From TrEMBL, chain A:
Name of the protein: Oxidoreductase
TM ranges: none
Stored Gene3D superfamilies: 3.10.20.30, Nucleotide-binding domain of ferredoxin-NADP reductase (FNR) module (3.40.50.80), Translation factors (2.40.30.10)
Keyword Transmembrane among record annotations: no
Domain (FAD-binding FR-type): residue spans on this chain: 36-139
UniProt keyword Flavoprotein, yes or no: yes
Stored Pfam families: FAD_binding_6 (PF00970), Fer2 (PF00111), NAD_binding_1 (PF00175)
Residue ranges of every copy of the 2Fe-2S ferredoxin-type domain listed in the record: 268-351
One GO MF term attached to the UniProt entry: oxidoreductase activity
Alphabetical keyword list: 2Fe-2S, FAD, Flavoprotein, Iron, Iron-sulfur, Metal-binding, Oxidoreductase
TrEMBL record, chain B:
Biological classification of the source: Bacteria, Bacillati, Actinomycetota, Actinomycetes, Pseudonocardiales
InterPro entries: FA_desaturase_dom (IPR005804), Fatty_acid_desaturase (IPR012171)
Superkingdom assignment: Bacteria
Domain Fatty acid desaturase: 67-334
BP GO terms, sorted: lipid biosynthetic process
UniProt keywords, alphabetically: Coiled coil
Gene Ontology, cellular component aspect: membrane
Pfam family, one: FA_desaturase
Record's protein name: Fatty acid desaturase
Organism: Saccharothrix coeruleofusca
Coiled coil: 8-35
An MF annotation (GO) of this entry: oxidoreductase activity, acting on paired donors, with oxidation of a pair of donors resulting in the reduction of molecular oxygen to two molecules of water
CDD domains xrefs: Delta6-FADS-like
Amino acid sequence: MTSVALRARALRLLEMVTTPLLPSDYLDLVAPLRSGADLRGRIEAIHPETRDAATIVIRPGRGWKGHVAGQYIRVGVDVDGVRLWRAYSVTSPTSRADGRITITVKAMPDGKVSNHLVRRAKPGTVIHLDQASGDFVLPAVKPAKVLYLTAGSGITPVMGMLRDTALADVVVLHSAPTEADVIFRDDLRDLAADKALRLIERHTDTAGTLDITRLDEHVPDWTERETWACGPTGLLDAAEEHWARHGIADRLHTERFRPAALVTGEGGAVTFTTTDKTVEADGATPLLDVGEQAGVLMPSGCRMGICFGCVTPLRAGAVRDLRTGEVTTAEPGVLIQTCVSAAAGACEIER
Amino acid sequence: MTAIDPTAHLSDEQIEQLGRELDALRDEVIASRGERDAAYIRKVISVQRKLEMGSRGVLLFSLFPPAWLIGTAGLSVAKILENMEIGHNILHGQWDWMRDPKIHSTTWEWDHVSPAAQWKHSHNELHHTYTNVIGKDNDLGYGIMRVDEDQKWHPFHLGQPLWNFINACFFEYGIAAYDLELGKNLHKSRRKNPEFRARAREVGKKIRKQVLKDYIIHPLLSGPSFLTTLGATFTANLVRNLWSHSVIMCGHFPEGVQTFERRSIDGETRGQWYLRQMLGSANISGSKAMHIMTGNLSHQIEHHLFPDLPSNRYGEIAPKVRELFDRYGLEYVSGSLPKQVFSAWRKVFRLSLPNKSVKPNKTVKVPGRAKERVAA
Ligand SMILES: Cc1cc2nc3c(=O)[nH]c(=O)nc-3n(C[C@H](O)[C@H](O)[C@H](O)COP(=O)(O)OP(=O)(O)OC[C@H]3O[C@@H](n4cnc5c(N)ncnc54)[C@H](O)[C@@H]3O)c2cc1C
Ligand code: FES
């Protein structure tokens, strides 16, 4: 018998001993980061970056498959006893020798997870993770000239790329309210001093918000550059418009932390079939929120339609995509993203 | 016994006020649920799992009498914790708010021959909705006993002390049969019902797994200790069964607990529903360890008022609930475990015989609606 078959047999025997639980339920108590376990990580350190941002050093479990610079991970954190999932960009380079990864979080006003991670989380805590994903990454063939256009916490995926991949000609145009608010200020200035990049730091409290139509005043050759942009919705919307107007929309890559403009329509009664609960929902509230408020177990991640951490079978009725207004009707095998879908009349989803 | 309605002194408005006060208490707990509660249930689960594995480990050497004793005691406690403080309460959805898929009513399976899904239906949906309503709440005697004067006597009930004892020894099987509504479904007309058959198959599968684990795999792993381990797991299951049966009997059967007429719940208001739960349940007093071992069903009254609040909170709100009973002039039925077990058993014996006098008519017909009846 091969060792794989032997292992499978041993596992089946173990399952007979632990039924109705699984052997992993017991192993999780002592070795939550072992290989074969659900992916988790242990917070090893928390380093403040600014007055409201911190970098979290995470030792990922053995099942961690690595990331590509610029990608994000889904992180599940227990805040006040409740498991909440959010997406965070990886800020450490792929080559980090100790195998740790870092995320850098900016505390949002009233933000549940971000405040918890920045201000309350303790080293030693085990958190839940998912493999890295996202296509806000550099192409295989490195572009000759690059512009990183960022603001606020939008510097995070870009820092991941800067630390990972050296490029010949890089401009970083970064906005933050004040000098003290610039996350990674020292790292950016060091890189600039080493001539690894040209840094344009804009402090918007004094200099005002960047007017994207006057971008050529700061970066005259911007149209020749492949651009990666990450920041608040306003900046990204303006950038997309600007690049499109110049007919080079394909040279702009954006990463959004928040969903783009929302549409709404009529709501309806939502039935969660596994939990056997029915609640009334309006046409603007994502089914993810509706379910969570009703106490239904709803998987989630980015909460804005990009990670597919929330996909759920639509069993009956119709739902509306809050980004496009498009209505999806139930058919066998139809899956919906609950974070960007709202009820469009009565519907049943399998949760 | 005379027809005294213990709610006769309350006006409709008072009953609704009582309901509002209980709703406020519930909201208070929900608003303060948090890290401390989550840490509590995780701790209990962790202790239970370590105790179970440790005890099963010790039982591998059960040929040595001290190992047998320690292992059997540990496994009994582990099984009790698993069914009561952990399984029963998770399946009630008490911990769903944590959004942890590993500790959730829709994913949990317990160390019990009745599959979680079936038990949830008969327990959460039927028993907790129809608490102590004669003819609707099958928990009142489980369909094999008469535990209230107003239940019709039948010669079959003469044997009920024996039925109750057998049920206590094999309680988990009793519950599985009960969740399957075997009594009703074994009728010729229903036996072939595909829905019933599917459910029966589920139970069969669960029994097979449970029996295989406790009575074959674990003894086999013990090698020369095969027979003694078999005896140990059997004993642990027996202890768990007797314990949970006793605790559960104490919840609704002791003297002083009220039962209700079938008609009484038509158009029941929120306040009246609360009132029925208050009068239809009884508590067990005791130490903290005892409360945990009963899955906090020793706070049966609090549990019936708020079935989905975390069990560690029942003890904390009990003084406030008790204060409400006092203020509204209601009897908070509570007693030590031996006293309540004795009281429940005495009733089982007494009601195995037909009612002595003319129908005593002691059931509360309609909680809080005695006046309506007079007027009608
Ligand atoms: C792909 C991706 C990558 C991300 N990477 C990072 C990262 O590297 N670092 C980082 O700090 N965040 C990042 N985010 C944002 C992060 O996932 C959370 O949305 C953010 O931390 C707020 O969560 P919260 O629980 O604190 O706020 P919540 O409690 O969910 O919300 C509190 C309030 O803040 C508002 N709010 C929520 N998110 C934002 C936001 N991004 N900007 C402004 N207001 C907001 C809400 O509307 C609400 O009013 C990323 C998001 C995505 C989708
Ligand atoms: S939560 Fe990420 S796609 Fe819905």
